[in-house]
Amino acid sequence: MNAETATRKSFRREGEDKRREDLIAATLECVAERGLAGATVREIAQRAGVTAGLIRYYFPTKDELIGAAYRAVMQRMTVQASDALRSANDDPRARLYAFVTANLGQPIMDPHNLSLWAGFIALVHADPAMAAAHRDGYLGFRDELEILIRDALLSARAPAESRHTRSHAIAINAIIDGLWLEGCLAGDIFSDGELAETGISAIEAVLGISLKAEGGAP
Amino acid sequence: MNAETATRKSFRREGEDKRREDLIAATLECVAERGLAGATVREIAQRAGVTAGLIRYYFPTKDELIGAAYRAVMQRMTVQASDALRSANDDPRARLYAFVTANLGQPIMDPHNLSLWAGFIALVHADPAMAAAHRDGYLGFRDELEILIRDALLSARAPAESRHTRSHAIAINAIIDGLWLEGCLAGDIFSDGELAETGISAIEAVLGISLKAEGGAP
DNA sequence: GCTCTATTTATGCAAGCGTATAAATACTCC
DNA sequence: GGAGTATTTATACGCTTGCATAAATAGAGC
């Protein structure tokens, strides 16, 4: 009952990891909702339930927070795709099939993910650190894909020398990226699963093998 | 030699079209160089050689200028691709070939274009007008592609019903977009023309026809 | 329970933003 | 060549931004 009712906000001290995660999550929410421009330190802080000053305690500068958020997005998508692999780990062709359909369906193919990704990509050209982060993610993805492709080809008794698998990986990576883009941007003009089907068919054509049955090429 | 040396900047009155083009060009320079955040009205005006206030005379709000700039980028890329078509307008398969290689080479496959495109795409999700602008551009591109595909298939005496050409257009559009992306982001890790070649091969596989010679499928 | 420190709040600042508006001026038309 | 107008400059306002800093406090360790 003091005359000075200027009560300070009560708070809890959280572990460092937890706070960083919360701040990154809040950042992603902001970017997804109103674009990179909407991700101000004040907005992020409010969404994370803390005051703005705290951000600087965990991230020396806002750009570092943004960069951390970008890495988190990429990692999240990568993990989700790998999860799909772990669910169907028997036949190599089925594994490639699962990998592709996972990347072309929920929750990876989502407008929010695209907004985040595009916002960051726009910075890649200006920020070398961001560019390096991107390249690592891209090459990692392609390497994983190339292994899946090689195993699928071998399983179908098709030639799988590295000079073939490399260009196949480039092409199939493009198919996945391109369809992912189309789906994120205008998912409503495609029927359910249409893009995943289209992708599988195109990839089967490129590789010259079937991914659905064990029969291999007819 | 007046004591009041506060001389006003001298200026020329330009035609409305010229000014709008200049302002859009200046905007694109800013976005390409330092991202959307670097495209401030003051910076844009300076680069266009005018004062900031003038922007508002031609564009009621900054967002409208940004939107106009986005449409200009898309149109520029579309026109460049169409130019390639006009240079090789004999055989339908050669036309498709030319269209693909044009989109996967200079000047379309360029990091600047990607920065511009990505910066704008990040806004699509938040801004309905931008979303409409994008959808129009995308569907226009895909329609043009679908016609090229149909003609190429017919020329090779392959089935070309619309339900086939539609899904082919989706897949091939994805291949082009995906490879364009890869090239823009990391062009230096690919040899010259590698991506265009990869794209052509993948597209030939999807369509089941050859695009290089007149011989059709073997 | 007291102390000490890492964590958090609160406040302020300087810079830059988009926009508004009035004054100046280059060009057009008679 | 003089009047009128469309175009352009110049200036200022109100906001928001990222960042800095000092004061407060929650929770751990003795």
Set out the fold topology.
The structure is a homodimer of 218-residue chains.
Chain A: H1 16-34, H2 41-48, H3 53-58, H4 62-87, H5 92-103, H6 111-124, H7 128-155, H8 162-186, H9 194-207
Helix pairs in contact in A: 1-2, 1-4, 1-6, 4-5, 4-6, 4-7, 5-7, 5-9, 6-7, 6-8, 7-8, 8-9
Chain A binds a DNA duplex (30 and 30 nucleotides) through residues 8-14, 16, 19, 40-42, 50-57, 61-62.
Structure description:
The structure is a homodimer of 218-residue chains. The first copy, chain A, is mostly helical and 218 residues long. Helix content of chain A is 70%, strand content 0%. Chain A has helices at 16-34, 41-48, 53-58, 62-87, 92-103, 111-124, 128-155, 162-186, 194-207. In chain A, α7 packs across α8 (162-186). At the A-B interface, α1, α6, α7, α8 and α9 of A face α1, α6, α7, α8 and α9 of B. Chain A binds a DNA duplex (30 and 30 nucleotides) through α3. Chains A, B: InterPro entries: BetI_C, DNA-bd_HTH_TetR-type_CS, Homeodomain-like_sf, HTH-type_TetR-like_transc_reg, HTH_TetR, Tet_transcr_reg_TetR-rel_C_sf. Chains A, B: Keywords: DNA-binding, Repressor, Transcription, Transcription regulation.
